[in-house]
């Protein structure tokens, strides 16, 4: 029997973390691209194969509609509003955002918010639920880290303490109710496309293909896009802002993630309602929040402030 204390495998290898991520190795670049691109290519290859018999315009329309609805529920709702308080919402908008975010099937709202607040509190340090850097910086460690940050962390048994990280949501009866509705909302998000597709084509086959493309595939694609913000956007990309972690702006995901892949900007100023703060950085979620504000449903929106941006922006020369 060894009396030695087992080392904690989740410990961060170098503490404190340096501010810069250093150079990415070719192996790291290759692995990230491999994991990110291959399943997407496989899916894209399935589209022409199924076109005309197992996939049609109704399926595409429903998939795009439910993708947009649930993605924005997560980005503008779960993330920018509930986690970071980037704006104030009236009660109807608050409940609508909680419901549409839940329909992304990324877990009940209170756990989602608690996990993400913990991520910001400990970003890329010990305690972060999904940092890709916990195993080290060798190619093998990064492959493991990528998997852990992307999906692996969800299979760990430890649970974020909601009483510590989301007491505001625990104290909200509306949110408690939506939290309990999660299984029902999961059924709705999978079956609603089937119902609409069946009615639109007046066929069981139409219901089945809509269930597959606008239900299962749509949920899976959004899962991977959201998880990519945790994995890819903490590994690869530009880092124009000072952040204590390895968050990065990864432009190829800007559209699909509806602005969330401007992740370095987000970590530099987490409560800001707009993540794509640079010129030409498309941020659909911020545009939606702008619409909510115009409609009077959202107030006290925390839009980017030039002085904050300037303060956070990296400078090469010190004054
Ligand atoms: Zn992050
Ligand atoms: Zn965040």
What do you see in this structure?
The protein has helices at 26-50, 57-83, 91-102, 109-121, 139-150, 162-165, 167-170, 173-180, 182-201, 204-230, 263-268, 284-295, 306-312, and strands at 88-89, 298-299. It is an all-alpha fold and 319 residues long. The protein has one domain (55-312). Helix 2 runs antiparallel to helix 9 (182-201). The longest helix has 27 residues, at 57-83. The radius of gyration is 20 Å and the shape is globular. Mean pLDDT is 88; it is low at 1-22. Residues 79, 83-84, 116, 120, 266, 270 line the site of one zinc ion.
Describe the structure concisely.
With 319 residues, the protein is mainly alpha-helical. It has helices at 26-50, 57-83, 91-102, 109-121, 139-150, 162-165, 167-170, 173-180, 182-201, 204-230, 263-268, 284-295, 306-312; strands spanning 88-89, 298-299.
